[in-house]
Design a protein that fits this description.
Length: 427
């Protein structure tokens, strides 16, 4: 019975070793497949690592702006062309920034995948080591079992055993058990050698993968540093573009303010030597043509005290928005001192200003029956003063000469208002 139990144990142990061998073969295949996937991830990571090509933006921006500044003012591009170039540079810089962020995210994801694969390799190496330990224990059990078989065989050869015992059958079974145990032991030894080789290879691959992972992390760190440097360069380029945009806007005298529907509002900037602190807004209204393109339909200026109807008529007839912008700006900053003075006098007098004739009309006297027309000099208030050129509603016997100052010359509009009010109040 002892020999039979030993044989049963041997068969059970042999089946366990066979099952473990199959599982180890499957584990080896999975490990090879995971290693292939890991190498693919690393290759993809290396393919994603490229330099941020920001130099072209700096060269393009600087060359374009230097071309504008080096040319004569008459040959400068229109405001719209400069604005398009600046916006295009900003758009490209924004696109490169987004692309760099996407590359960083992709590399971060790949580095995370590489860390996961490395952890899986470490875990599988640990499992292989655990299985090798189990196989070694099984090998020890088989060796003990073989020794038991050999001991039983020695007992069966003793002369004091009952001769009626079927010695030949028992010896045959015992010999068969010994052979199977020896074969199982050899198989276990072969599996152990194979596992040790796989373990050695897995450790080498793990170390290699660790080196590649460190390289990928270093590459990612370098990419992040380059992205930060690229972001700083983009920030500098943007500041450069904004500064150049402001300079060109000041030189051209126009700056975009807003666009609503088919209406464009621009700021009319003062000349460099101007002391005016008022920035007028000119809104251009356009109409879309059936054949494509846009036609100037009208315009509104703020402050509304500046009369530009004559300029609007010419501009809409010729569809020349540039003419309108330049002439309105010129008229505004030429007449701005006068307009500010008129705006202040309107609180005390009933007056209006005819920009086309550069004349001021004011209603004086009782009930405003006297209307005086004053001609304003072109360079007022610098050189030429104010002249009284017409007057209607005068009392009988009074002429334009009676309204002229008796002594001295009145040079300002305010002085004329005080003088005319004083004279007309006596009639």
């Amino acid at each position: 019975m002892a020999a039979a139990n030993v044989l049963v144990d041997s068969r059970r142990v042999l089946e366990e070793v066979t099952q473990q061998n199959l599982k180890l073969v499957e584990a080896k295949e999975l490990l090879q497949e995971s290693d292939y996937n890991a190498r693919s991830v690393l290759n993809h990571t290396k393919g994603q690592c490229s330099d941020l090509k920001m130099t072209w933006l700096e060269l393009q921006t600087r060359v374009k702006i230097m071309e504008y500044l080096e040319k004569g003012r008459d040959s400068w591009p229109e405001y719209g062309a400069v604005d398009v170039d600046v916006k295009e540079a900003k758009k490209k810089a924004s696109g490169l920034k987004k692309e760099a962020a996407q590359q960083e995210k992709q590399l971060s994801d790949l580095a995370q995948q590489a860390n996961t694969k490395y952890d899986e390799h470490v875990e599988k190496v640990a499992k292989l080591q655990e299985r090798i330990t189990k196989v070694e224990k099984t090998q020890t059990k088989l060796q003990d079992l073989l020794q038991k078989h050999q001991a039983v065989g020695q007992l069966l050869n003793l002369p004091q055993i009952d001769q009626t015992f079927d010695m030949a059958a028992v010896l045959e079974q015992q010999s068969d058990g010994v052979r199977k145990a020896e074969a199982a032991l050899l198989s276990c030894g072969a599996v152990l050698v194979g596992l040790q080789q796989e373990l050695t290879q897995a450790v080498q691959e793990r170390d290699s993968f660790l080196s590649q992972k460190e390289t990928a992390e270093k590459t990612l760190e370098e990419l992040v540093n380059r992205r930060e440097q690229g972001t700083e360069r983009v920030r500098e380029h943007t500041a450069w573009c904004k500064q150049a945009y402001r300079v060109l806007s000041q030189l051209s005298g126009v700056e975009e303010h807003s666009v609503v529907g088919k209406s464009l509002t621009v700021k009319l900037l003062p000349p460099p030597d101007s002391t005016c602190n008022v920035v007028p807004l000119l809104t251009l209204h356009f109409r879309e043509q059936l054949t494509g393109g846009f036609t100037l339909e009208g315009a509104v200026v703020d402050p509304p005290s500046l009369e530009i109807e004559d300029l609007i008529d010419v501009a809409t007839e010729t569809n020349d928005a540039l003419f309108l912008v330049n002439r309105v700006r010129e008229r505004f900053f030429t007449q701005m001192p006068l307009l500010q003075e008129i705006e202040g006098l309107r609180h005390r007098y009933a007056m209006d200003y005819q920009a086309t004739k550069n004349q001021v009309r004011v209603m004086l006297g009782e009930g405003g029956r006297v209307t005086c027309t004053l001609d304003i000099g072109r360079d007022y208030p610098c050189t030429e003063g104010v002249r009284l050129v017409d007057c209607t509603g005068l009392p009988e016997g009074k002429t334009l000469h009676d309204l002229q100052p008796l002594t001295g010359q009145l040079t300002s509009l305010d002085q004329w208002m005080d003088h005319l009010t004083s004279v007309c109040s006596q009639w």
